[in-house]
Backbone:
């Protein structure tokens, strides 16, 4: 009930994922066991790819509101397990991805569905089945839904002559609606390009533009991924509509963007793979084409899943609302009992969410906190604030634990415009109140360049299309178990001002001035899709309460004063009661009116019982409105596309006879809806009254009445206990359907209205139907005092307080108060001992040395180190550090920090781990003509500002900006020189500071690999930092190495320090070895890196001698191998939330960084060395020089080739 309610007459079914598979464990060091929560889990791709990419034990909890999504995933898993080897992978592919099946595949699907339907008759029969140890269900309701879907798959009995029935009708409807949406004028949609597949093609990217568009249209035309026109066509073939792509929900239609290509990594179809690459996937090397590469990847995933399914993999399934599920897990985590949560399974049903007691009871072993939470693109549907309030408290307090969000909907002109809109306020400030840190924002780094790529494509398509952004959220370091800081202090008025700003932005659609500006800017999405209501805001306050150290009641009193006196919102006062009751029931704050039981008025109607006769009436009660079926014909008797999915609410208002001055109205948007039949137990108008609604799952397509329930203050109902009006209506928003509703309902948009005295349609009870308590939002389970003693020495306690800029409502500085508790330190401080403050290895840590003893202080977000001021109170025995927060994270030196945490385990904060780097596809760098995409990809490292800065070095900039630019240029040189795309090929690179000691780090490059999970490349190297102590031992070998040619990459002092800071992360990410107990990182006073000074050690020696597999082309390396260690170097892309993304119009990378390769032997559009049918490339008929694999590629490349074609043709003619 914390998200907006909608009349969902029409929904889209998403059986196939729309983003490439990710490795869910890439944030975890190899020693960590994975506890993963997938919300909006979608298809099986992420599970299969993670199981393939990482051998550690995986415990994955999967949640999707569609039981049919889970059913098809489990059916696929069972098919994989039942296949003795890979011979069935092709059949499984067809069953899972094709719209239409041949009879053999259809029969296999039917057989498997019947098998699973029988095994799922009860929880006991499933647990005792062959799949019960691998796959479990979080509750009986999920099992029942999945059981129902498997039965649904077997409904149609097609004959041999034709495909008919429900599935065929549903499939034809989906295809028709897709065509109507994309081609409303009945024109040939071949004129428009579908660019969504390019995300799967990265890093190759644009080379796949033509083919991904062709494959998408082919899939919707023929219903299969077959590229052979005869095999693909259903004409002349008996094909059957695939029930796996049909939802049992009659209101759900297959999404118009469904495309199997979107979930895979199709760059392997375009990039030149080395012959030795992926021996476990030989099919990928032999079969040409995108579809073949997808099927080969699917086969590899399936084989890996089959091999490791038993023993190292646990899958848990839940069908229901992700927000509700998360809050129930919150309750289990905080209280030990999930049954105290009192949530509903979905927003459209009255079924309570009751998790299985064996797994989620007090003695249950199912996880209720997680070190990986992936939420797909749910923020597009429920809002980022609602999602993070629900999921944030479930994230474990560990430096590696990560929560991922994605957005696909274009909600702003650019990603940078999202910074202060994503969380309805200043991103760093609001995320800190939620106990989270946006990692990419603070480091200005991104693992891939999807955002940059799509910015260019968006410009090509004139602002249409999606806008993809993936964000990683982590715990602030101060919230980790080993840290002395937990809660953040605020001034009460400042905190109230921050929260009031959030309130204003959450509900800006109620502000007439914002409505007008939003219409001008084209942000109608905000107006037609309200994601929040006052209960959402109250839930946010509940979580914030557990994160701050303030006089909370005072802060809330100030906040409510601001809200009550707000004159911007026309309807603000009408929602005030809803805000107050949810602040009350969620334990946020109670106004005086709700602290005591209401005092009923005498019953003026004599014997008739009404609200005034309710003894000990609670301050808040539930109103349930029964909406007759005939009132719903407005929705059900018209085209669902016209009706849309309008947001709904309920109202309680004064009787019709009330005078203008005495008229009143309160609006309640936090409503729960459900269809079914109602029964009542207990006495009406008493605390014993309980309402029971038996759910009719047919919903809008059934014949049951609609029940709508909401919480109301008793005092409001007692104003007119019989004559007050109760209504169910549509929230007024700017949408295409608004005119439709106002014509039929009038301006008040009420669908049904009655009075409190209408006992047939109005039911009032203590709790909502089918519930025995009030909905819980528990927030964080680990909240404690505002200070926490140092775990190791009990020498001091620390508390951090934030200062807020009054004009912007943003945190401007932090003050860390160190209260010295050890007597020896107190005495030393009073005696005048020196106190020194030194920055740590990141911009969040400082070390305060008192009397020779180091005290570590960690701030919750990065700060400006140079701004640190130290205050010393020697008599009072405390020290304070005051630091400013950065106004622009792009100016921070933070890139890839590595921290020590959790049992002295070095952990990379934001560099993706590569658990099985040897399985990443290696590229054949000798095929230069097929690597020209690499320059485009790596050049995406440079933001628009960095490109301007390189072109104009005199442009005003900071040292940090110039250092980061130089670092990226060095990376570009590494990739270009290793592949030979720029200058002479090299395998040995020296980072050379000519004015500061010469070569300081040697890199021996072994291979260039595709990082499929992040759609980028990675250079597999052996790294050898040169130290003063090491040089005498290897001097002779270094002299020999010069004969092989060392490519000198010039760096200055600042860039060399950055390389030293980043190198530990490059090493940690591909680590297959364990750190020794005597690891140098763990020594007293040490950090990561060990030092950034010339000639000093950078890395620990734990991994020395462990190098990339295979033979290097440098024999002399064996003499220094024991001092080198494997590292994985990838491009450093900017964060699109921070930096100005290159959109194709800004200054390109200058020519001194790149020498354009000459035209090679491949297709000039996509670099293929053969035509799509396997034959030789076709030559341009005019110049007889350019070659293409297809007419489509030739057309796509025509503009680029036209001028050169004329030159070549003229030259050929003169010859």
Residues:
């Amino acid at each position: 009930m914390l998200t907006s309610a909608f009349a969902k007459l029409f929904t889209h079914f998403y059986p196939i994922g729309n983003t490439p598979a990710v490795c869910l464990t890439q944030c975890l060091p190899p020693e960590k066991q994975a506890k993963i929560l997938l919300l909006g889990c979608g298809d099986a791709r992420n599970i299969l790819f993670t199981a393939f990419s990482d051998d550690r034990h995986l415990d994955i909890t999967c949640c999707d509101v569609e039981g049919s999504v889970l059913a098809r995933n489990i059916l696929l898993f069972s098919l994989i397990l039942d296949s003795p080897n890979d011979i069935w992978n092709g059949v499984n592919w067809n069953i899972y991805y094709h719209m239409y099946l041949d009879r053999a595949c259809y029969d296999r699907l039917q057989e498997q569905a019947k098998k699973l339907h029988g095994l799922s008759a009860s929880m006991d029969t499933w647990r005792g089945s062959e799949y019960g140890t691998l796959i479990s269900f979080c509750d009986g309701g999920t099992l029942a839904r999945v059981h129902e879907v498997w039965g649904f798959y077997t409904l149609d009995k097609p004959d041999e002559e034709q495909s008919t029935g429900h599935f065929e009708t549903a499939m034809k409807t989906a295809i028709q609606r897709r065509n109507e949406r994309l081609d409303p004028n009945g024109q040939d949609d071949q004129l428009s390009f579908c660019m969504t597949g390019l995300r799967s093609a990265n890093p190759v990217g644009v080379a796949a533009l033509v083919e991904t568009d062709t494959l998408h249209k082919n899939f919707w035309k023929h219903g299969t991924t077959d590229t052979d026109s005869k095999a693909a066509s259903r004409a002349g073939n008996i094909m059957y509509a695939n029930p796996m792509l049909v939802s049992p929900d009659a209101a759900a239609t297959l999404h118009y963007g469904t495309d199997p290509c979107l979930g895979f990594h199709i760059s392997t179809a375009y990039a030149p793979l080395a012959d030795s690459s992926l021996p476990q996937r030989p099919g990928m090397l032999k079969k040409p084409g995108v579809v073949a590469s997808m099927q080969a990847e699917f086969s590899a995933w399936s084989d890996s899943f089959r091999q490791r399914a038993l023993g190292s993999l646990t899958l848990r399934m839940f069908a229901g609302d992700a927000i509700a599920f998360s809050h129930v897990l919150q309750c289990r985590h905080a209280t030990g009992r999930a049954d105290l949560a009192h949530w509903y399974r979905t927003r459209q049903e009255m079924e309570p969410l009751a998790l299985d007691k064996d797994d989620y009871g007090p003695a249950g072993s199912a996880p209720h906190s997680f070190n990986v939470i992936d939420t797909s693109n749910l923020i597009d549907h429920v809002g980022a604030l609602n999602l993070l309030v629900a999921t944030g408290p479930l994230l474990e307090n560990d430096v590696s634990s990560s929560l991922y969000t994605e957005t696909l909907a274009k909600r702003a002109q650019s990603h940078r415009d999202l910074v202060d809109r994503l969380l309805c306020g200043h991103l760093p400030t609001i995320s800190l109140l939620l106990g989270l840190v946006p990692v990419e924002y603070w480091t200005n780094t991104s693992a891939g360049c999807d955002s940059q790529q799509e910015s260019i494509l968006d410009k090509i398509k004139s602002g249409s299309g999606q806008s993809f952004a993936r964000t990683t959220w982590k715990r602030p370091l101060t919230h980790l178990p080993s840290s002395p800081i937990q809660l953040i202090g605020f001034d009460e008025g400042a905190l109230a001002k921050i929260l009031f700003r959030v309130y204003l932005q959450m509900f800006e659609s109620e502000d007439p001035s914002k409505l007008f500006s939003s219409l001008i800017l084209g942000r109608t999405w905000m107006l037609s899709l309200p994601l929040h209501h006052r209960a959402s805001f109250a839930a946010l306050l509940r979580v914030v309460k557990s994160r701050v150290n303030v006089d909370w009641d005072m802060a809330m009193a100030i906040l409510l004063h601001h809200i009550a006196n707000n004159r911007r919102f026309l309807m603000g006062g009408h929602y005030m009661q809803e805000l107050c009751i949810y602040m009350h029931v969620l334990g946020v704050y109670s106004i005086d009116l709700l602290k005591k039981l209401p005092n009923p008025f005498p019953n003026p109607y004599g014997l008739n019982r009404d609200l005034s006769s309710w003894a000990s009436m609670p301050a808040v009660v539930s109103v349930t409105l029964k909406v007759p079926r005939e009132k719903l014909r407005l929705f059900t008797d018209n085209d669902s596309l016209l009706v849309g999915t309008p947001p709904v609410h309920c109202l309680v208002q004064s009787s019709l006879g009330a005078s203008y001055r005495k008229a009143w109205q309160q609006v309640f948007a936090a409503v729960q809806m459900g269809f079914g039949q109602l029964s009542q137990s207990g006495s009406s108008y008493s605390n014993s009254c309980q309402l029971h609604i038996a759910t009719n799952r047919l919903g809008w397509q059934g014949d049951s009445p609609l029940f709508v329930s909401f919480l109301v203050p008793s005092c409001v109902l007692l104003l007119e206990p019989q004559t007050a009006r109760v209504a169910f209506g549509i929230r007024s928003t700017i949408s295409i359907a608004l005119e439709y509703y106002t014509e039929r309902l009038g301006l008040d948009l009420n669908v049904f209205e009655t009075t409190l005295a209408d006992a047939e349609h109005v039911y009032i009870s203590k709790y909502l139907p089918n519930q025995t308590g009030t909905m819980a939002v528990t927030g964080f389970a680990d909240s404690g005092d505002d200070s926490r003693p140092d775990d190791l020495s009990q020498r001091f306690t620390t508390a951090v307080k934030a200062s807020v800029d009054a004009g912007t409502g943003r945190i401007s500085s932090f003050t860390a108060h160190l209260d010295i508790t050890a007597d020896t330190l107190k005495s030393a401080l009073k005696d005048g001992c020196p106190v020194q403050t030194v920055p740590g290895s990141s911009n969040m840590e400082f070390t305060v040395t008192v009397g020779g003893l180091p005290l570590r202080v960690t701030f919750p977000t990065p700060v400006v180190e140079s701004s640190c001021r130290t205050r010393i109170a020697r008599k009072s025995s405390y020290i304070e550090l005051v630091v400013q927060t950065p106004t622009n994270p792009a100016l921070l030196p933070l890139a890839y920090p590595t921290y020590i945490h959790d049992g002295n385990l070095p952990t990379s904060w934001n560099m993706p781990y590569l658990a099985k780097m040897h399985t990443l596809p290696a590229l054949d760098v000798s095929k230069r003509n097929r690597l020209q995409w690499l320059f485009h990809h790596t050049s995406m490292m440079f933001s628009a500002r960095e490109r301007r800065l390189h072109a104009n070095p005199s442009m005003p900039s900071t040292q940090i900006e110039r250092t980061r630019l130089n670092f990226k240029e060095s990376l570009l040189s590494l990739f270009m020189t290793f592949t030979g795309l720029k200058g002479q090929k090299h395998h040995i690179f020296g980072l050379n500071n000519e004015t500061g000691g010469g070569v300081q780090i040697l890199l021996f490059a072994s291979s260039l690999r595709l990082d499929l999970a992040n759609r980028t490349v990675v250079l597999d190297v052996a790294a050898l930092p040169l130290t003063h102590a090491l040089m005498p031992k290897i001097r002779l070998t270094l002299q020999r190495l010069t004969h092989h040619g060392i490519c000198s990459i010039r760096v200055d002092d600042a860039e060399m320090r950055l390389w030293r800071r980043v190198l530990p992360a490059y090493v940690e990410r591909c680590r297959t070895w364990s750190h020794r107990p005597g690891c140098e990182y763990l020594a007293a006073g040490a950090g990561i890196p060990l030092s950034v000074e010339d000639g000093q050690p950078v890395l620990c020696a734990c991994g020395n001698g462990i190098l990339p597999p295979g033979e290097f082309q440098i024999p002399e390396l064996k003499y220094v191998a024991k001092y080198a260690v494997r590292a994985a170097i990838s491009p450093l892309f900017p964060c699109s939330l921070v930096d100005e993304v290159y959109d194709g119009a800004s200054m390109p990378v200058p020519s001194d960084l790149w020498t354009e390769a000459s035209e090679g032997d491949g297709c000039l559009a996509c670099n293929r060395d053969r035509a799509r049918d396997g034959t030789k490339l076709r030559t341009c008929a005019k110049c007889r020089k350019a070659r293409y694999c297809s007419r489509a590629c030739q057309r796509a490349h025509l503009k680029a080739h036209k001028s050169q074609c004329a030159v070549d043709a003229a030259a050929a003619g003169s010859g």
